[in-house]
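Morning run. Coffee first, then this:
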Amino acid sequence: MRAIRKVLASIRNADLRFSLINQGDKIVVGVSGGKDSLVLLYALNLYRKFAQCDFEIIPVMLDLGFASFDPSAIQEYVRTLGMELVIADASTVYPILAKHTKEGGHLPCSICSRMKKAAINKVAKGLGAKKVAFAHHAEDAIETLFMNELYGGRIATFAPKMHLQKADIDFIRPLILCRESEIEKTAREEKFPVMKSPCPSDGFTTREDVKNLLAGIYKKYPDAKENFLTMLYNYEQEDLWGKEIFYKIEGSDLSLKPVLSKEDALIMAKIRTDVFLIEQSIPPQDEFDGSDEGQEHLLIYKDQTPIGAIRYTFDEERLIHLSRICTLKQYRGFGYTKKALSFLIEMLLAKTNPLIFTLGAQVQALGFYEKLGFKKVGDVYLDANIPHFKMVLKRDK
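And here it is:
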């Protein structure tokens, strides 16, 4: 059986499981010239012929500034698919990477990844596309999980679909359930004009080390290969310590609990409903406006009772925006919110220092935040038809 059939089956499975592609989508497909991106472009072109939705594909290749860049063979191949390859100028990327060369001459992969995403986002916006498809596959996801565990002390990998709120772009990875072996076989069978990577660090990265580590595990424990992929979406069996974390505020009966479970989320929604919708008559569409996605949420507990909530996000590397700060009416006036906020600020400073904290304060709460060190900035503005002031706190340890 031709390998492309397995690739298409994997794309369909991912699409049905993660809802990647919708009717009328205009999707920019990132084409590097490597086997993965060429298989993705070819397979998506076939997939739209039998998928039960109509979508448009725009292949885009970034010129990152490498001296050996020559897209001519890829341009010609893309034309055989009935499309034109968009070549986008991102030639400032390589000079910046060269300035941050690591010991041994390795280019910084993390910086490169961020710059490529920013560049292709810009292209997508200019083309009127709301989705960008990258060719990350199952092995990439598993390797990233292990890299984060080994080098970052966290259990995380990239998602099949991710919404970038500021750019208003969805990143999708249609090959997320596809095995690299099937991609390699497809590239050979279809005789794709695969380009050699121009990156001098290709094959000499920590990812290559993890790839070799996993190969050894699979050789000794063959079932692990499928199990490692299954565990990434086996949410029913997830059982980690995060759900049990309560950050105790010493010298008090208060603690902060990260909102990680659906039970936590329901408790948070109830508190915000009581404070903002019922007490302050804020319309539901203003309070629950979709901005919760991608932000960190905490519940304030007094002993075993949830009494308030806080939301925050890292807008930039050292800028934290606090919002949706609320405490149930019967628990106000005891200093609980002040203790919770002070504790959170110090906890975040312990991880990153210095930091700038910002928030939008209702006029009647100005004095409360000023006692925490926040200063009023700018003129009054309306949020949900309630007067607010922007407030800023600059802190270091």
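The first helix runs from residue 3 to 18. Good start to the day.
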